[in-house]
Structures are given as C-alpha cells and as structure tokens.
Design a protein that fits this description.
The complex is a heterodimer of chains A (252) and B (428). With 252 residues, chain A is of the alpha/beta class. Chain A contains 8 helices and 12 strands. Chain A has a single domain, classed as P-loop containing nucleotide triphosphate hydrolases (Rossmann fold, 3-Layer(aba) Sandwich). Chain A has helices at 40-48, 72-77, 95-109, 117-130, 148-162, 178-191, 231-239, 248-251; strands at residues 2-11, 14-24, 29-33, 54-62, 65-66, 80-83, 90-94, 141-142, 166-170, 197-202, 215-220, 223-228. Chain A is globular. Classes of the chains: A alpha/beta (252), B alpha/beta (428).
C-alpha cells in the first residue's frame, strides 16, 4: 500500500529525515518508536502533506502512485488520515459542520451522494458514543476548549467517520489517562481490517499493549535503525534506547 | 495650489416636486447651503482613504428613471415598504395596521405634518462630519416617516427595501425618519439593492429618535450592484434607558461609505453596533462610526469585523466621544480584521476622546491572516483549500451574524456571505 524510499525532509533548512525506508501493506499495523527529536512527527506531517516540511530526496508511493505530488486534501481523499499530536482548535466552526464537510468531501470524491444534515447527525452521534465523547461536543467549535483527552478522542472519531485506508497516529497516546487510552485503542482496533493499515508513532510502549503492532521500527536521528516484531517494543520498554547506541537525552 | 474640486451645480437641481411645500422649501435651503461645497480629497481627514474611489461626474447628477416593476429582493414576509429610486411604491408595499404605529410616505403628509418633520430632519446627524450625505436633504423626492406612539410595539420586523434601477445613469436619495415614542419597540430591516448596469449613486439617510425606554433595532444590508456608488448616513438620538441596536452587513463595491452616528443623550441609554464587512476584487467599503456619550451612566458596545480579499480595501474609523458630564460611561469597541490576500488593504482607526474621569472605555483592533495550522488541519481531512478558507472566514464573522435578531435575514446573510467569500481568490 505505502512504500517509502530513501525519504529525506527538512524544515527551515535543517534536515530532519535522513533516508527513511518503510513498506506498509494492507492489513498491517506498524509502530514507529524513538526518542524525542528523532523525526517521528516530521514523518507523519510529511506523509499528510504539511508544506512546512520540504522533501529533498526520495519518494513515497501509495498504491504505486507518487504521493508527494498530491495536495494535502487529495491525499486525504485517497485514504491518508493523520491523527494530530496537537489537534487544532477552530472556534466558530462547529465540530458537526467540520465533520460533515470532511465526510462529504470524501464522498464526493468517491462519486457517492453527500449526506444531508439529519443523516449525518445520526451517524456522528452514534460514532461519538463509540469513542465515549459526549454528543454535545459535536455542537461546540472544533476542539474548542476540549481537554487533551477529548481532543484525542475527537481525532479517533474523525478516523472512524472518514474510514481511511492508512491511519497515521501521531503520539495519540500522549497525555491520556488509562481509561482514555483504552477508549482510543478500542477505536483504532475497530478501524483495523484487511484493507487498512495503521501507522502508530509513539514515544512509549504503553499504547502497544492495547493495539498490538505487527512491526516495530526504531527511529533515531532521521533513520530507521532497527525493525522487529512486537517484542521489540517490550525490549525498548525494558532497556531504553541506549543499547541501540541512541542517547535519549541528547536526541531530545 | 490647485483649487479643491467642488460639487457640481448639476447635483443641486432636484427633480420630483411631489412633496408638501414645507419639505420642498427645506430641500431648497439645504441645496443653497451646498453651493460650491468642496468635495472630499485625500487631505480631508475623514475621507482620506476613500476620496479616490469617489466618482461624482455629472452623469450621476440627474434622477434615475424607473423602468421595471419594483420587487423585493429578500423573501419578505410580513411588513415591507418598497422604494424604487428613492420614491415609495405603495402597490409593492405592505404596511402594518397596528395601533399606535403610523407609517407614511413624505409625499402624503399634510402641510402641517410636513412642517413638523422639516423642523426635525437632519437633527440626528452632525452635518460637518457627514458631508456628502447632506446632499440627500437637498435632493430627496420622497421618504418614509415612521412614528410610534408611546408603548406601541410592532410585532414583526418592518422591511424597507431600497431598490435602485440603474438602467439609466443618475442618483437616488432614499430617506427614512423614525420617531419612537417612550417604551415603544420596533425592528427595521433596510436593504439596499440594485438592478441595471449603468453607473449610479445611492445617497441614503436614515434617522432614529428614541424617547425614554424605547427599543429600536436596525438591520442594514448593503448589497447594491458593482455599478452603484453608495453613500449613506444613519443617525440615532437616544433618550433615557432607551436601547438602539444596529446590525450592518456590508458587501463591497466601487465606493461604499456609511456614517453611523449615535448620541446617548440621557442616563441609562445604551447602544450595540455590530458590523460585518466583506470586500473582494477592487472593491471598497468605508465605515465611519461615532458614539457620543453625552449623558452619564450610558453603555455602548461596538464590534466590527472586516474581511478583505484580492486587491480590495476596507476602512473602519470608530470614534467614541465621552463628554465632560458623562461620568460612569461604559464603552467597548472592538474591530478585528482579516486579510485574505497580500494585495488587500485594511485601515482601522479607533478614535477616543474622553473628557470625563470616571469612565470605562476599552478598545481593541487587530489585523491578521487565516491561521495556516487551522487550514492544514481542515485540508488534511479532505476539505478543499477554498472550502477551508470559506469555513474559517465565516467563523470569523459568524458570531456577529448569529446576533441578527431576524431569522430570515440572518440566514440570507449567512448564505450571501458564504457565497461571496467562495468567490474570492485564494492564495495557495
């Protein structure tokens, strides 16, 4: 599904990604772990199409097509979804209006009929219960005044509504208590299917107790330095990054 | 030094003699006072950003001739008065038949009624400040006099549709005078709209006087065509514990100038002035507002938002004048501005003159662009950049539109603003 080859990217002239190679197939769950500053979030942002990051080398293919040629919205329509580490607050745009506009953009792209307000409200209310988010949050401004946990649940709500083919979760576990973590993990597990893939970016192993990855990759200084199965996450949890020759403190 | 351009005498030849003689006489006097009136230039302080948009050539001096049939643009339910080229069209109007509320066209007033009106016309406006709007008093051909007896309440809004038929060149001078008796209540929606493609000017003046405890809400929709220059002035004088609310929805054009002057003359009076302005292409809009805190214990709250796209130009000048006796005044003014393109210009000037020492007076003005993080968040969900820009721009003004107390006008405004913003060029 997704093939990343020798990807280099910089921000404001500083190279952050220094040659990433990664293959993700449909049905797989991948986790990228690594210390702060290793480039995890940059990778997520580059895949989603944030123009603040400049790709200087390499390529990313989605189903054989060059993803990097596409605008951000086109990537989303082709099935890329990024759950933000820091979801943006947008006062004045209601969550409901935002979600419906997004869902209808995707439906239009697929040649499906748009959902009217009543149909969509029903769907959104049901789905928000699935992530334990009070449906009243649908009436509020996008993420406006939401707590950290509510913002993350709102991200998963979006993923469930948009049904992406590749869901990228950028530090979705950070700032969550154990109950919220469970809710978020259940949401992600509900997304898993043989047609979809999940890429989790995380600093800690604890999310991986709830969403078991097929592959774990360790990112350090802009490169993947080690890949393995889910057992690698436990090893990192126990031993830290030092045994891989990575200095956690310096890297952050 | 080059002499300042003057108002052409062609503008001082009113047509339409179908008014009671006291009003004809008033019009003549006002015209005489405008002979050789210098036109505003770049050096005229309160026109310095706008004088270059003003094109008062003689083709605009004549009256407009109406060709078509008057119709209402807003889906008007309930009461409405339709003006075409400044003259009321009774057959297109539906006026309320409510106790204590008297609505008459100027042309139908008796001489004694007209004499009383003539004594009061212009008494809410500072003629030195409104300059060009003074031309209205020298040229109006008809008008609407709305009188509310004490405690009279109009159950539904009164729409006043001022339509300009610009199938020939010329100018129109709609005129409204509203006199609200003590503890009376009314909501008035003025809509300015036009048909036809020739160059034209609308010069519209509306005045409100509010007696003790009266409540008047004014909604003003400015959506004349791109061939029509619009100069308008609204004045309001407030008695004790009265409340005046103004909601302006302003679409840009070749020249758009509106002066809003509110005088809080007795203790306990309060006003709320909201304005939403959108401009695009090479359009212009200039709002000048003045709030006079004359009496103590009065409140004023003013919120204007401008959105300028492309190479357009929006201006906000908000003056608050707190007189020496106006202790315990409470005045709040906020003007926020959004620039959608690098070629757009917004000039904002809060002007505070405070001569009393025990007052609260706050003002704030900001100019910014759309938040790129918010745009990225929206487009990362598959929403197009254009749609994202529209959503965020509407979010910027929605808070004010939501406050428009007439549901049909609120919805129509939202629809029109949304459509307008969708048309603007979006920089990638």
């Amino acid at each position: 599904m997704l093939s990343i080859k020798n990807l280099h990217a910089s921000v404001e002239g500083k190279e952050i990604l220094k040659g990433i190679n990664l293959e993700i197939k449909a049905g797989e769950v991948h986790a990228i772990m690594g210390p702060n500053g290793s480039g995890k979030s940059t990778l997520s942002q580059v895949l989603a199409g944030n123009e603040a990051f400049e790709v200087t080398e390499g390529e990313v293919l989605m189903d054989g097509n060059n993803l990097l040629d596409l605008e951000t919205e086109e990537r989303a329509r082709d099935g890329i979804f990024l759950a933000f580490q820091y979801p943006v607050e947008i006062p004045g745009v209601s969550n409901m209006q935002f979600l419906r506009t997004a869902v209808n953009s995707l439906r239009r792209h697929r040649g499906e009929e748009e959902m009217n307000a009543a149909e969509f409200m029903k769907l959104a209310r049901e789905t928000s219960k699935q992530v334990d988010l009070d449906p009243n949050f649908l009436k509020r401004g996008v993420n406006e005044g939401f707590s950290g946990g509510e913002k993350k649940r709102n991200e998963i709500l979006q993923a469930l509504l948009l049904q992406p083919r590749l869901a990228i979760l950028d530090e979705t576990d950070s700032g969550l208590d154990i109950d919220a973590l469970k809710v978020v993990a259940d949401g992600v597990n509900a997304l898993k299917s043989k047609d979809r893939a999940v890429l989790m970016v995380t600093h800690y192993q604890r999310l991986l107790n709830h969403i078991v990855p097929d592959y774990v990759h360790v990112l350090a200084d802009g490169r993947i330095v080690k890949s393995g199965g889910s057992e690698l996450a436990f090893e990192l949890e126990e031993r830290g990054y030092g045994w891989l020759g990575i200095n956690d403190a310096v890297a952050s | 030094m080059k002499p300042a351009p003057k108002l052409s005498s062609a503008f001082l030849e009113p047509a339409g003699q179908k008014l009671p003689s006291p009003l004809l006489e008033l019009r003549r006097q006002r015209g005489t006072a405008l002979v050789d009136m210098p036109l505003p230039t770049r050096k005229t302080e309160n026109w310095k950003y706008s004088s270059r948009y003003l094109k008062l050539d003689d083709t605009l001096a004549g009256s407009l001739t109406s060709t078509g049939k008057a119709g209402t643009d807003l889906a008007v339910e309930g009461y409405h008065a339709v003006f075409r080229n400044g003259v009321m069209v009774p057959e297109a109007s539906k006026l309320p038949d409510v106790d204590g509320i008297d609505i008459r066209r100027f042309a139908d007033l008796s001489d004694s009624e007209a004499t009383k009106l003539a004594e009061r016309l212009d008494n809410t406006l500072d003629s030195n400040a409104v300059q060009l709007a003074r031309l209205n008093s020298a040229r109006f051909e008809d008008g609407l006099l709305i009188q509310l007896k004490p405690e009279a309440v109009l159950d539904k809004p009164l729409f006043i549709v001022c339509e300009t038929d610009a199938s020939t060149s010329g100018s129109a001078y709609p005129r409204i005078y509203l006199d609200a008796g003590h503890h009376s209540q009314i909501t008035v929606v003025e809509e300015y709209t036009s048909t036809g493609e020739q160059s034209a000017m609308v010069n519209a003046v509306t005045e409100f006087t509010l007696a003790e405890g009266a409540q008047v809400t004014s909604v003003r929709l400015s959506s004349d065509g791109q061939n029509v220059q619009h100069i308008g002035a609204t004045g309001a004088r407030l008695g004790g514990n009265s409340r005046f609310e103004s909601h302006a929805v302003c679409f840009g054009g070749p020249l758009r100038r509106h002066d809003l002057q509110v005088r809080l003359e007795q203790p306990g009076a309060e006003c709320k002035l909201n304005g939403v302005v959108v401009t695009q292409g090479k359009q212009h809009y200039d709002n000048h507002t003045t709030i006079e805190h004359v009496a103590p214990h009065c409140n004023s709250e003013e919120t204007y938002r401008n959105i300028a796209a492309d190479q357009s130009h929006a201006i906000f000048n908000g003056r608050i004048h707190i007189h020496p006796d106006a202790q315990k005044s409470n005045a709040n003014m906020s003007n926020k501005n959004l620039l959608l393109s690098t070629g757009a210009e917004i000039d904002t000037k809060p002007e505070l003159e405070i001569y009393a020492d025990d007052v609260k007076c706050a003002h704030g003005a900001t100019i910014g662009q759309l938040d790129e993080d918010a745009i990225f968040y929206l487009v990362s969900r598959g929403i197009s950049r254009r749609e994202a820009t529209t959503l965020l721009s509407m979010a910027f003004i929605n808070e004010l539109i939501e406050q428009i107390p007439v549901a049909s006008v609120k919805e129509a405004s939202q629809g029109r603003l949304n459509h307008f913003i969708e048309q603007t060029f979006v920089e990638g």
